[in-house]
Design brief:
7 strands
Length: about 150
């Protein structure tokens, strides 16, 4: 039986090179996704991301990078994330995110649903930042902070 996969995609009105840099560069990613990143994504390197609504930092290891086309990383022992960039025109990029690795059971299905929601939010926030310089995520998840 096939394992569940979280999937989300969106078109962004920016060149693939701009979208790629916005993903691998923690300074840019702080504008739409993380509160802090320890370093740029590089193949084989473990880095840490912190999120404004969660305590601590979360490790990830980049497994593959094809500049302006593909980024693959692992961020928990079971989850492999693939971000694909497809150039539609000089100033338009289709971004596809998929994440898989959990079992095809109730817990795995619930995980995939939650991750799909999270990746859709990631993409919407990235689009808002890259196209309009709006920090859509700012304050959006404050309700999730532990009291």
């Amino acid at each position: 039986m096939e394992k569940p996969t979280a999937k989300a995609s969106i078109g962004i009105q920016k060149p693939a090179s701009d979208v790629f840099e916005a993903i691998i560069d923690p300074e840019q990613m702080q504008n739409y996704f993380i509160s802090k990143g320890s370093a740029r994504m590089e193949v084989g390197k473990e880095i840490f991301w912190s999120f404004p609504e969660f305590e601590g930092s979360y490790p990830l290891t980049t497994k593959e990078i094809i500049p302006n086309e593909k980024i693959v990383f692992v961020w928990d022992p079971k989850s492999v994330v693939t971000i694909e960039l497809q150039k539609l025109s000089e100033n338009e990029t289709l971004v596809k995110v998929s994440e898989h690795g959990h079992e095809n059971d109730e817990k795995g299905i619930q995980w995939a649903i939650g991750q799909t929601e999270g990746w859709a939010n990631f993409l919407a926030c990235m689009k808002a930042w890259l196209e309009y310089r709006i920090h859509l995520r700012k304050g959006a998840f404050d309700f999730m902070k532990s009291n």
